[in-house]
């Protein structure tokens, strides 16, 4: 049973009809006391709450009622509705326990999507299945591991995949965030539609709108043809926004507007387009810390993390390392036509004790380098140790200038110029070589007035 709390009879009637047409049972209340009495009866599965019950539009009435609702039933999902809502009010409501925020006039499809998602999440509970049971129910073929924390993540994916809940995937670099995002898509109702990955760290602020929303011919100097944006490419499917913690503040505002209103305008066009997509984001940055420092918008943070999945570092699940090593070895057998490749038990045990700050990506590179260098098919501890030592020496044996002979800015500028020249002004490759994102490289190019050609990529 849904509970609608709104002082406007037209809104109450409209929502009652909308839910009844979808086969959902709903009741309505026009005042706080009536709403609390209905909630206390115990059969309410979700609340639609108007933030205002008087001429004053401060939202205090709704916020106070939200607190009371959560005291009566802390587990009940709450969707806030308002005709004049501000982002700050939405954030305040989310902090008090609301699950979503809808503006009047609302889009019926989006409102129903939000309600159905929250109801589904409320109804499905974790069952702590084994890996074999999970594999029989879902498509997790490319995800290797049996660690309890990984199984909890896979079970959560199974529970949320059929919904349109926004998901934020966190974890260190190399932990497999993209694989998790793909698994969410492959097990969803949108699996036959596109899965579009966007590396937000690689998009400069000046190109954000063109890249994400598309542009029409003549929208700017180099816009010689129409271009479809990433949101349109992902239509009816899933968009994966990787490295969202790298997004500039100005671009964060533009992204928030799309996620909140589900509409955008193509650059150079006044036509408004609507989006029907599932949004999955990922970051290795501490977004909550960034929010407190003011470098990441709090309102955007609450929009993207209805569900948060934190991937453990590989050193936190050492039992999965032999499984990953054997998986990589099986692939390398075919890739390099070496069917007799094996790893000794002693080597597997040694690999399990490595810190591996680069996680799965580092482990994969170490295995592949060892296979390529070794002439024998049985790899032992020494094969891996020598390759690990060589990679450490390469990074540690740097010849730096004498202290006082050059400033840090001058050294950085020279290194950027060298990388740009080596990679023939290709921004993406130069940024990767320097270990920074494209967005960071663009900022440094402008800081040091280093000329570059955006079309070189």
From TrEMBL:
One of its GO terms (molecular function) is ATP binding. The modification 4-aspartylphosphate is found at residue 50. Keywords: ATP-binding, Nucleotide-binding, Phosphoprotein, Transcription, Transcription regulation. One of its GO terms (biological process) is phosphorelay signal transduction system. CDD domains: AAA (cd00009). Residues 1-119 form the Response regulatory domain. Gene3D superfamilies: 1.10.8.60, 3.40.50.2300, Homeodomain-like, P-loop containing nucleotide triphosphate hydrolases. PROSITE patterns: RESPONSE_REGULATORY, SIGMA54_INTERACT_1, SIGMA54_INTERACT_4. Transmembrane segments: none annotated. Residues 143-372 form the Sigma-54 factor interaction domain. This is Sigma-54-dependent Fis family transcriptional regulator.
């Amino acid at each position: 049973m849904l509970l609608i709390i709104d002082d406007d009879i037209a809104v109450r009637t409209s929502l009652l009809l909308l839910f009844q047409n979808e086969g959902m049972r709903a009741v309505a209340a026009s005042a706080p006391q009536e709403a609390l009495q209905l909630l206390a009866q115990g059969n309410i599965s979700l609340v639609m709450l108007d933030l205002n019950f008087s001429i004053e539009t401060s939202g205090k009435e709704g916020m106070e009622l939200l607190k009371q609702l959560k005291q009566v039933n802390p587990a009940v999902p709450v969707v806030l509705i308002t005709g004049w809502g501000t982002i700050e009010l939405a954030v305040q409501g989310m902090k008090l326990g609301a699950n979503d925020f809808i503006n009047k006039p609302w889009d019926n499809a989006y409102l129903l999507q939000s309600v159905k998602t929250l109801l589904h999440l409320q109804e499905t509970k974790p069952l702590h299945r084994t890996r074999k049971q999970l594999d029989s129910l879902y498509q997790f073929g490319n995800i290797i591991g049996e660690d309890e924390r990984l199984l909890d993540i896979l079970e959560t994916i199974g529970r949320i995949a059929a919904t349109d809940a926004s998901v934020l995937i966190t974890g260190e670099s190399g932990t497999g965030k993209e694989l998790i995002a793909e698994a969410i898509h492959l097990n969803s109702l949108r699996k036959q539609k596109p899965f579009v990955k966007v590396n937000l760290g690689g998009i400069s602020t000046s190109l954000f709108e063109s890249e994400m929303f598309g542009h029409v011919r003549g929208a700017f100097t180099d816009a010689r043809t129409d271009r479809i944006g990433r949101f349109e490419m992902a239509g009816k499917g899933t968009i994966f926004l990787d490295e969202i913690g790298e997004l500039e503040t100005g671009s964060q505002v533009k992204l928030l507007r799309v996620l909140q209103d589900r509409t955008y305008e193509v650059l150079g066009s006044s036509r408004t387009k609507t989006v029907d997509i599932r949004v999955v984001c990922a970051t290795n940055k501490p977004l909550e810390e960034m929010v407190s420092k003011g470098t990441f918008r709090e309102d955007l943070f609450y929009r993207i993390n209805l569900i948060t999945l934190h991937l453990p570092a590989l050193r936190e699940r050492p039992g999965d390392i032999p499984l990953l090593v054997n998986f990589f070895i099986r692939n390398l057998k075919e890739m390099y036509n070496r069917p007799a490749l094996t790893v000794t038990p002693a080597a597997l045990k040694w690999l399990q004790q490595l810190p591996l700050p680069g996680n799965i990506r580092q482990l994969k590179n170490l295995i592949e380098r060892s296979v390529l260098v070794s002439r024998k098919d049985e790899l032992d501890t020494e094969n891996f140790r020598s390759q690990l030592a060589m990679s450490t020496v390469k990074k540690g044996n740097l010849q730096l200038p004498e202290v006082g002979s050059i400033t840090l800015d001058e050294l950085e500028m020279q290194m950027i110029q060298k990388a740009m020249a080596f990679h023939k002004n290709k921004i993406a490759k130069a940024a990767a070589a320097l270990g920074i994102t494209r967005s960071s490289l663009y900022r440094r190019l402008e800081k040091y007035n280093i000329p570059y050609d955006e079309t070189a990529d």
